Amino acid sequence: MNPATRDRERKTRDALVRKTQEALDKLAAVKKRRKGSPPLAAKVGVVLAKYKMGKFFNWKARGRRLSYSVDEDRIRTEEAMDGCYVIRSDVPKALMGTDENVRCYKALASVELAFRNMKTVALEIKPVHHHKDDRIKAHVLICMLAYYLQWHMVERLKPMFDNDGQGAERRWSLPVVIERLKSIRRGARLVDGVRVGFMTSKPDEEQMGVLKLLRAEM
């Protein structure tokens, strides 16, 4: 249980229950209703939908009269779970224990990050401008291989990322690393139009540090 989360959830719920009560009191206080106005039950529904506290209220609207009560037992039941992190699984305990369940659930964050990288500007798996199944599969495979390389790059660059600044002072990210490495060029050396080898530009000190972390050979 997280005490800070528990207190925040309890405070938020109490405030919303109170606002719901105030709104319902106003509806109950109205003795005369204008002709053509929405039914009282509909107005109650609007209030409960606004604050999303309907499960904590029992109410009845008969004609022009509204009566309601707060379900204190339901609130106490909810309070018992405040600040708790609950994970439900349909996998038998004999196959997956509590700790493994938690690890698997937290690992979903990595899966979601992978899909974000695949779908957005990092790798851009879409749109797929292919019409044949084998070409679509090849396109997806290339993107998966690219993400595989990206994942290993991030893992190897962790020491640099961990020692970076915070917030706006933070400098390094994978796109920045790639941009810094772009200035390293390798070209063919030609003699009378015949290629006799390759020539690579010399990395600066910062680039050498990145390449060292990546274990890349020049």
Provide structural commentary.
- The protein is mainly alpha-helical and 218 residues long.
- Helix content is 53%, strand content 11%.
- The chain has eight helices and four strands; from the N terminus they run H-H-E-E-H-H-H-H-H-E-E-H.
- The strands form two sheets. It has a two-stranded antiparallel ribbon with strand order 1-2.
- A hairpin with a 2-residue loop joins strand 3 and strand 4 (194-200).
- The longest helix has 27 residues, at 3-29.
- It starts with a helix and ends with a helix.
Topology:
Blueprint: H1 3-29, H2 40-51, E1 57-62, E2 65-70, H3 72-79, H4 98-119, H5 133-156, H6 158-162, H7 174-181, E3 186-191, E4 194-200, H8 205-214
Rough outline: elongated
Oligomeric category? single chain
Low-confidence stretches: none
- Give me the Rg, rounded: 30 Å
Structural class: mainly alpha
Strand proportion, as a percent range, falls in: 5-15%
Round the mean pLDDT to the nearest integer and report it.
87
